[in-house]
Design brief:
By secondary structure, the protein is of the alpha/beta class. It has helices at 2-23, 43-59, 74-81, 95-99, 101-104, 112-115, 140-149, 164-176, 188-197, 207-215, 263-277, 280-288, 298-319; strands at 32-36, 63-67, 89-94, 116-125, 127-132, 155-158, 181-184, 202-206, 219-224, 251-258, 292-293. It has two domains: 32-125 and 250-319, 3-Layer(aba) Sandwich (D-Maltodextrin-Binding Protein, domain 2), CATH 3.40.190.150; 127-224, D-Maltodextrin-Binding Protein, domain 2 (3-Layer(aba) Sandwich). The chain contains 13 helices and eleven strands. The strands form two sheets. Strands 2-1-3-10-4-11 form a six-stranded mixed beta sheet, with helices on both faces. A five-stranded mixed beta sheet has the order 7-6-8-5-9. Helix 2 crosses helix 11. The longest helix has 22 residues, at 2-23.
Length: 324
């Protein structure tokens, strides 16, 4: 009887060990491909390569950054959705592809919430509301007051209709009840150039791109989009504290996999990426790029996608922006 109890206990331990082994996959055993659906050299590409290099060392397998361009990130997103759900093809893309596209376009051919499995958000950047230095407003309250006194007389630029910079100001308009005229550009740099020249009066721009203009005195900073001030630009007030309570948006870079990838592989990817992101050297490299490290759990990322999708759906519906 005694030996039978020992044998039963041993079998139970063996079964438990087998289950643990099944729950902790030997992943990866071959190179992993990170699809970044934007051009090389941009903020998300550079951030991705920093993490990929560190993960390659930790995993002993190469993490290949694959720039799949087209349709504002939707070509690369679709490529990952179509990939085998084995964890060896993952998507690193902007929040817009997770939260905005399905409201902005009549038919993108997929539902990001159903077609992709969140892993983590690796980094984020704030946006800056800036103005021409000759424009007669010096803060957010003065901008709102002038826009209410002169509806549609103020021109605001963007990096393109429907992009994150355009939607940031549409949210700003909806929260303040003002009307301004949209002038879309093919990128943030030409928009900033015309702002400096006085062709447009205000513009949202990503913090890493906008900081040099502010520090050189070429533009005036009115506010920063996040809930807290930036350590790199501590003198710039948040838009919320400057007169629009509750205003809080950023641009974030999210990692995901095709739906159907096992929970164990999602968990291991999250844990290893989070560890890499929190290494001092990686954080230092992020800071030099104007990016704030993040390491949210898959569930937290999923909740954020749902919340922001609802927010932007209302903004897009209210602004009548819609593309085929």
């Amino acid at each position: 009887m005694f030996y039978k109890q020992i044998l039963t206990s041993a079998l139970a331990v063996s079964a438990s060990t087998a289950l643990c082994a099944a729950d902790t996959p030997n992943f990866p055993v071959k190179p992993v491909r990170w699809v970044v659906p934007y051009p090389p050299g941009g903020s998300i590409d550079v951030v991705g390569r920093v993490i990929a290099a560190r993960l390659s060392q930790a995993w002993g397998q190469q993490v290949i950054v694959d720039n799949r361009l087209g349709a504002g990130g939707r070509v690369g997103t679709q490529a990952v959705i179509n990939a085998a759900p084995d964890g060896y093809t993952q998507l690193l893309t902007l929040n817009t592809n997770y939260t905005i596209d399905r409201s902005l376009f009549k038919n993108i051919g997929y539902d990001p919430e159903k077609a992709l499995a969140p892993i983590t958000i690796v980094a984020s950047t704030a946006q800056l509301l800036i103005s021409n230095v000759s424009f007669p407003v010096k803060n957010v309250k003065e901008l709102v007051a002038l826009a209410k006194a002169r509806p549609n007389d103020i021109n605001y630029g963007s990096s393109g209709a429907g992009g994150s910079l355009h939607l940031a100001i549409e949210l700003f308009k909806s929260m303040t009840g003002i009307q301004m005229t949209h002038i879309p550009y093919k990128g943030g740099v030409p928009a900033a150039t015309d702002l400096i020249a006085g062709q447009i009066q205000v513009l949202f721009i990503n913090a890493p791109a906008g900081a040099p203009y502010i520090k050189s005195g070429k533009v005036r900073a009115l506010g920063i989009s996040t809930a807290t001030r930036s350590p790199q630009l501590p003198d710039i007030p948040t838009i919320a504290e400057a007169g629009v309570p509750g205003f809080n948006i950023d641009v974030w870079f999210g990692l995901s996999a095709p739906a159907g990838v096992s929970a164990a592989i999602i968990s291991k990817s999250y844990q290893d990426v989070s560890k890499a992101v929190n290494e001092p050297e990686v954080r230092k490299q992020f800071a030099s790029l104007g990016a704030d490290p993040q390491s949210v759990t898959p569930d937290e990322m999923a909740r954020r996608i749902r919340a922001e999708t609802a927010t932007w759906a209302k903004v897009i519906q209210g602004s009548s922006i819609r593309f085929e």
